[in-house]
Amino acid sequence: MREQGIAIGALARRSGCRIETIRYYERIGLLPAPARQGRFRRYAGADAARLAFIRRARELGFTLDQVRALLRLAGADAAGGAGGPTVCADARELAAEHLAGVRARIAALRRMETVLAQTLRRCAAGESPDCPLIASLAGRPPP
Amino acid sequence: MREQGIAIGALARRSGCRIETIRYYERIGLLPAPARQGRFRRYAGADAARLAFIRRARELGFTLDQVRALLRLAGADAAGGAGGPTVCADARELAAEHLAGVRARIAALRRMETVLAQTLRRCAAGESPDCPLIASLAGRPPP
DNA sequence: CCTACGATCTGAAGTGACTACAGACGCAAG
DNA sequence: CTTGCGTCTGTAGTCACTTCAGATCGTAGG
After folding, report:
1. Chain B closest-CA separation from residue A132 CA (Å)
2. pLDDT in single tens digits along all 143 residues of chain B
3. Given CB atoms, is B82 within the 8 Å cutoff of chain A?
4. Which helix (H) or strand (E) element contains residue B60?
5. Among residues B42, B35, B91, B100, which one has the least CA distance to residue B67?
6. How far apart are CA B57 and CA B63, in angstroms?
7. Where are the beta strands (DSSP E) in B13-134?
8. Chain A partners within 8 Å of B103 (Cβ)
9. Residue A98 and residue B116: Cβ atoms within 8 Å?
10. B80 — alpha (psi -120 to 50), left (phi > 0) or beta?
11. Beta bridge partner(s), residue A46
12. Measured between alpha carbons, how far is B53 from A17 in angstroms, rounded to an integer?
């Protein structure tokens, strides 16, 4: 058995994470330190699965601390036993909180979008002597 | 003339920025170093107006670099002259780019929201043996 | 044989926009 | 006298990476 697992570059390609990100996750303890062949990291299937989990969670906008918690829950889940419903309830709570945050951010961005789009329309109309965007930022309200 | 201008705390209250933020803006050159009375900063009306401009721009989501550019444009605008239309066109371009970015971020957040809400519904239903959220993060797709 | 290349390694520093903290100063009221 | 307030300076911490400098290794080409 010469080559067990894959190199970090291969893992990066497979996972869509960058090499530096993978090493960063290792440094902060999100990924375990993998096996080494000489000085090179070699990743097994479990490592790749864990990284894929992290990546999906990140794509949903979870913070790394939340990902850490979700990984712990996933581990408790996989360990089996009667914890199942508790695990799901905990995960649900975490996700619900995160969803609320996402919705708040959407709302904030939409308010920005509305004002920006409105101001830009008045800019494009070009009826004012001074720039409506600059004017409204300067606190000279539109008539 | 004993007391010219207002103290940093008063400016913070008036502007809605925190004291530390005001000093931070000064450090990075977004606000000019104000006059001093002894060791205390004293802000004049122009400073307050500039800070208000910054704050409104930040509320619309512009980055500090964009705010810097907008301030320069506002200055050029106030200087008067034939630059007016050019200034407005530049500001419009800046804002249009920013608006596109805001819309992209809204779209990304909405994708997250959709997936999160969907998964949470399946979680709440509680029909699966394992947690649907954990399962989907682990790459075990829903049936 | 020498060299260039690609992949990897380590450790440190930079990003954006603040926020927090430590420790000192000066002035007024109690 | 001491307490408290408001301010000062300077430094470091946050989040999730990204970038950089400089070293090391095996292999392929000339």
Report:
1. 8
2. 456 899 999 999 999 999 999 999 999 999 999 999 999 999 999 999 999 999 999 999 999 999 999 999 998 766 665 566 788 889 999 999 999 999 999 999 999 999 999 999 998 776 677 889 999 999 987 76
3. no
4. none
5. B91
6. 8
7. 35-37, 40-42
8. 113
9. yes
10. left
11. none
12. 39
Query: Angle between the B45-59 and B64-78 helix axes, to the nearest 10 degrees?
Result: 130
- Within an 8 Å CB–CB cutoff, is residue A99 touching chain B? yes
Chain B residues within an 8 Å CB radius of A49: 138-139
> How many CA atoms lie within 13 Å of A21's alpha carbon, on the beta-carbon side?
13
In single-letter form, the type of residue at position B101 comes to G
Q: Give one word for A128, left, alpha or beta, with left for phi > 0 and alpha for psi -120 to 50.
A: beta
Q: What is the ipTM of this complex?
A: 0.88
SS (H, E, C) chain A: CCCCCECHHHHHHHHCCCHHHHHHHHHCCCCCCCEEECCEEEECHHHHHHHHHHHHHHHCCCCHHHHHHHHHHHHHHHCCCCCHHHHHHHHHHHHHHHHHHHHHHHHHHHHHHHHHHHHHHHHHHCCCCCCHHHHHHCCCCCC
Given a contact cutoff of 8 angstroms between Cβ atoms, the answer to whether B25 and B19 are in contact is no
CA distance A47 to A26: 11
What does the CA dihedral B125, B129, A75, A23 come to, rounded to 10 degrees? -70
DSSP, collapsed to helix, strand or coil, labels residue B142 as coil
Which domains does chain B carry? 1-59 (1.10.1660.10), 61-143 (no CATH)
